[in-house]
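User: Predict the complex.
Assistant: Input components as received:
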Amino acid sequence: MNWYTEQWSTECKFSIKYDEKLYSEKTPFQQIDFYKGKEFGTFFTLDGLMMVNEKDEFIYHDMIVHPAFATNPNIKKVLIIGGGDGGTAREVLRYSSVEEVIMAEIDERVFRLCQQYLPITAETVEQDSRMTLLFDDGLNFVKNASDASFDLILVDSTDPISVGEGLFTTAFYEECYRVLNKDGILINQHESPYFAEYAQNMKKAHKKIKDIFPITHVYQYHMPTYPSGHWLFGFASKSYDPIKDIDINKWESFGLKTKYYNTSLHIGAFSLPTYVKEGLDADE
Amino acid sequence: MNWYTEQWSTECKFSIKYDEKLYSEKTPFQQIDFYKGKEFGTFFTLDGLMMVNEKDEFIYHDMIVHPAFATNPNIKKVLIIGGGDGGTAREVLRYSSVEEVIMAEIDERVFRLCQQYLPITAETVEQDSRMTLLFDDGLNFVKNASDASFDLILVDSTDPISVGEGLFTTAFYEECYRVLNKDGILINQHESPYFAEYAQNMKKAHKKIKDIFPITHVYQYHMPTYPSGHWLFGFASKSYDPIKDIDINKWESFGLKTKYYNTSLHIGAFSLPTYVKEGLDADE
């Protein structure tokens, strides 16, 4: 019997039975492993942490992409940092109004292996003519990008360890601010409020972003295969407020069928439990 | 090394390290086990399933109790079915406006052991003069109760197996309807949308309740130690709507400090993901 096991904290762990280990590779950046099982289908891990699986990837990818588009339906130029599995790009490319998508993923092997083993996320991305794939460090990319050149930045990163670390720094968020135009929105993978280590990351990221962007919110979603299942994205922007400015009719007019996201959930997702709000408001 | 392990589905499991097994007992109704560890403090299981732990019991108990009181702040007579750990009663008794609470818990040993090992939920309940503790089958109790004798029924049950099974039947929900007064509200433990077995229970319960009550909703919360962390309560009522009728000012005037619940979250919790809504709306 084969079990993939992930420690959610020192004192607890989550395990998934798999039928087959599809592939393993150590790249210059990280350890990549692909598995296949019944409950979650094919899934892959980076440095031993669950990234994407066929059962619930739709939750993460709906929630990283659609709230920004329902807030500003005129988004045309999108930068994705990380997101090597392709799922975030896949959702962005569903908007025919989007003109250009640049994805800066540091590890090309993640994308190539997802093309092979996880077509549900990676299959359609590369062939879209609006798409530019850059296998480059995200922090490096934004440093060299022009001022005010994007409507939306999606930071689809790992936890702030190894390759993900630079994507949780003030220097990175400042560059994001600079390369976003005057209506720009930054969405970032914002960790989780429940287990201590993740909650620390959540607080640190929020404090840094709050010091840079005039409008900052955090929204939540149910992601069962991430530690605690209670996971967050940050919404930071220069002008748009995700609650006041949501354009429900316009978003509905796109006619996108989504399995997790809907405009009612959009509003609800920004209503956080008291202990989460207090954690975000607390000074470190 | 000691690990408590719970299968969340055939193919995955959640494990908690514990330092000490505090107590075990097989009652006529179920197997009861108490453990103590670092991450979750003291916790107990019934028939091998996590019921309550010191780290996140506040989430469950906030969410089973406060949405009903924010919808109808005039609740005075409350019936709790199950809830042997005492946490639900504890939260209800915080409302000084409540005049009478009856708790019908089938297994007295659950309550007595929680008094001993889990004072955080059970300690203050028995001494409150408004409280009547009945160690009786919940279905039996409602069958013999008078018409229109309660403002609120809280079904704080296990899954629909063994002792919890009768609390997921049409016969039980019909009796609940009868013993609720014209403004009565029924809140029930409504399982989870993510893993197939729990999702089936969710659908079945909703279908039965919808056939009996004129107003029915389902609301969600993040409960990390229950399978998938995505858990639900049902809100059924004869006249009050939990969104339209929420009395935010009145609830705030109670001055209750809550760690999870707040009135903004109340509204958000009723906004369900699309796949959950579709599951609830689907005919079995």
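The first strand of chain B starts at residue 2 and ends at 9.
Let me know if you want any component modeled separately.
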